[in-house]
Amino acid sequence: MSSEQKSMSIIVTKGSLDWAYPPFILATTAAAMGLPVTMFFTFYGLPLLFKKLDLQVTAAGNTAMKMPMMGMHMALPNLMTAIPGVDAACSVMMKNLIKKKGVASIEDLREMAVEAEVRMIACQMTLDLFEYSKDDMIDGIEIGGAATYIECATQADINLFI
């Protein structure tokens, strides 16, 4: 990478359906604009690299999540999130809305990132902590630690924590 070329790094720390969109949308957009992009997946963001994704929405504490229903936007009261099955129902509603509106799936965005040669690094410490291996992950990723990411981040023009 030349010193003139801008670059981006993203620390991905969350792996729910709603939190998976921002890093992948930003990474694929930046890559399409010609920026080298590195994504560092750590703690709960690491499962976004699993071969098989089963992403859910976690509605608890998310007062900004207002879904379009019955001609208006309705929020889910926090008390409702304690009821078994509510997260699953919210996830189904969100996935249906994503499909209805023609928004790319996380699987599609992740494949676009791979095709755009976004550098994806799985955190070694997180792999060890949660007893995962590289075999659990999609092909084409790297394994690295905090030093690997910091080396990249100190050279990047844009650093995001998501």
Structural notes for this entry:
- The protein has 162 residues and is of the alpha/beta class.
- Helices cover 34% and strands 19% of the residues.
- The protein has a domain at 8-53 and 105-161: DsrEFH-like (Hypothetical Protein Ychn, Chain: A, 3-Layer(aba) Sandwich).
- The chain has helices at residues 17-32, 86-100, 106-115, 124-129, 146-153, and strands at residues 8-12, 37-41, 66-69, 72-75, 119-123, 142-144, 158-161.
- The strands form two sheets. The protein has a five-stranded parallel beta sheet, with helices on both faces. A two-stranded antiparallel sheet has the order 3-4.
- Helix 1 (17-32) packs parallel to helix 3.
- The longest helix is centred in the first third of the chain and has 16 residues, at 17-32.
- The chain is globular and about 50 Å long.
- The model has no long low-confidence stretch (mean pLDDT 89).
State the gist of this model:
By secondary structure, the protein is α/β, with parallel strands linked by helices.
CATH topology term of the domain at 8-53 and 105-161: Hypothetical Protein Ychn, Chain: A
Proportion of residues in extended strands? 15-25%
**SSE ordering:** EHEEEHHEHEHE
Mean pLDDT: 89
At the first level of CATH, the class of the domain at 8-53 and 105-161 is Alpha Beta
Backbone shape? globular
CATH architecture of the domain at 8-53 and 105-161: 3-Layer(aba) Sandwich
Helix content: 25-40%
Number of strands: 7
Question: In DSSP terms, counting alpha (H) and pi (I) runs of 4 or more, how many helices?
Answer: 5
Q: Can you tell me the CATH superfamily of the domain at 8-53 and 105-161?
A: DsrEFH-like
> Termini separation (Å)?
24 Å
Largest sheet strand order: 6-5-2-1-7
- State Rg: 17 Å
This entry's quaternary arrangement is: single chain
Unreliable spans: none
Largest sheet: 5 strands, parallel
The helix/strand class is alpha/beta
